[in-house]
Design brief:
- By secondary structure, the protein is of the alpha/beta class.
- It folds into two domains: 256 residues, no CATH class; 113 residues, OmpA-like domain (60s Ribosomal Protein L30, Chain: A, 2-Layer Sandwich), CATH 3.30.1330.
- It has seven helices and five strands; from the N terminus they run E-H-H-H-H-H-E-H-E-H-E-E.
- Strand 3, helix 7 and strand 4 form a beta-alpha-beta unit.
- The two termini are 17 Å apart.
Length: 384
């Protein structure tokens, strides 16, 4: 199967699993007369000392990115009065708008990260307090634990809402990337317009460099936002399963073990070191399942990729895939390095598309190579 492509849209699907009310009915839980103010911190310490024996422990939240994405700014220039000079002024204005949008997106990202961290801390403190009380035994449907459960669920819902906003932010960053590509192409094309003076070309060269730096910044921003969304989404889905178990424990007043969902995931991924992408992939003699050729600007490949992978999983539900970024081997050292870098970025796009489709990241390995027979950048998908 041969398809061509260039871009994707980040749109993560949300799990519908939610914690069942520990009261066992539709009525609201009675509020406790006096909930301990410092229960969260003290209970967390007690739960840690218990060694996790039989406790429903909330997993540590995955780390968020720490980069702060600030554009370097746009170098001012003087109008020359030529047609090319007017084009430079126009492109410079568009670049300023683009960098302003990047700064705005960066500010929203930092704000969302702060909110997620705060909600995660409250959630873990509340769950630790519930676990500590259940560990020593309590009455079935204890109203204090019901109130704490509702508080923990609200915190988890707030985390999910923040991730939804972050997912929408990834879409806006993707639009920035499209605009950056347009400015880069326009700047290069302006060099071929006749009637320019030397000053026009000097300003165009500066502008092109600044557009390229902005494009790199956008790529880093998009990658970090996408990674944050993916990790936090998986974390919230796992914690919703844990909350179901906490709810059952509160209704009975007895502690349960860890979630069976988590145990199944651990069994399925045992033996993997989490750094599967760094392992060399030997594809000698293998026929690729899908070959995606990036030979034009925007050609959809997601549908073809989805059908190919879906049909494999219907026959082999535990299948693992190898993703290989292929770059042409022709050209000098600089050209080879540029092609290899672009091929890796294309492979990252395909990987994000597979994750959007629901394929766990642990089921995909990524590698890169050059091929003399390749005429353009490609991404090969193999069945291991």
């Amino acid at each position: 199967m041969f398809v061509s492509a260039c871009s994707f849209t980040e749109d993560t699907l949300w799990p519908s699993l939610t914690g069942e009310s520990p009261t066992g009915g539709d009525s609201q839980a009675a509020k406790p007369a006096a909930a301990p103010a410092q229960a969260g911190g003290q209970a967390m310490a007690r739960a840690s000392q218990q060694g996790g024996q039989g406790i429903i422990v909330a997993q540590n939240p995955p780390p968020l990115g720490t980069s702060n994405f600030k554009p370097s700014g746009v170098t001012p220039g003087q109008a020359t009065g030529t047609f090319v000079g007017k084009k430079v002024v126009e492109l410079r204005g568009e670049l300023k708008k683009l960098q302003g949008s990047i700064s705005n997106n960066n500010g929203q990202l930092q704000g969302l990260r702060g909110k997620i961290v705060g909600n995660s801390q409250r959630y873990h403190g509340t769950i630790a307090a519930v676990n500590a009380r259940l560990q020593v035994g309590t009455t079935p449907g204890n109203p204090i634990l019901v109130q704490q459960f509702n508080s923990a669920q609200a915190d988890l819902d707030r985390i999910a809402a923040d991730i939804t906003l972050m997912n929408a932010l990834a879409g806006r960053v993707t639009n920035n990337s499209t605009m950056s590509s347009f400015l880069s192409e326009s700047a290069r094309a302006s060099f071929a317009i006749s009637g320019a003076v030397d000053e026009d070309h000097r300003q165009l060269a500066i502008l092109e460099d600044e557009v390229n730096r902005t494009d790199v910044l956008i790529a880093r921003l998009l990658k970090e936002v996408s990674n944050d969304v993916r990790r936090q989404t998986n974390y919230v889905a796992t914690e919703r399963a844990n909350l179901n178990l906490v709810s059952a424990a509160i209704r009975t007043g007895e502690i349960f073990g860890g979630s069976l969902v988590n145990k199944a995931l651990v069994s399925a991924t045992s033996g993997q070191n989490g750094n599967i992408a760094a392992r060399p992939i030997n594809t000698t003699g293998k026929r690729p399942l899908v070959v995606i050729r990036f030979d034009r600007t925007k050609v959809a490949y997601q549908q073809a990729l989805y059908h190919a992978v879906s049909r494999v999983l219907e026959r082999r539900p535990t299948a693992v895939f190898d993703l290989v970024a292929v770059a042409p081997a022709a050209g000098g050292t600089a050209r080879k390095a540029l092609n290899s870098n672009k091929a890796r970025r294309h492979a990252e796009e395909v990987l994000r598309a597979l994750i959007e489709m629901g394929l766990p990241p642990s089921r995909v390995a990524v590698s890169a190579k050059t091929l003399p027979s390749a005429k353009t950048n490609e991404v090969h998908v193999y069945l291991r």
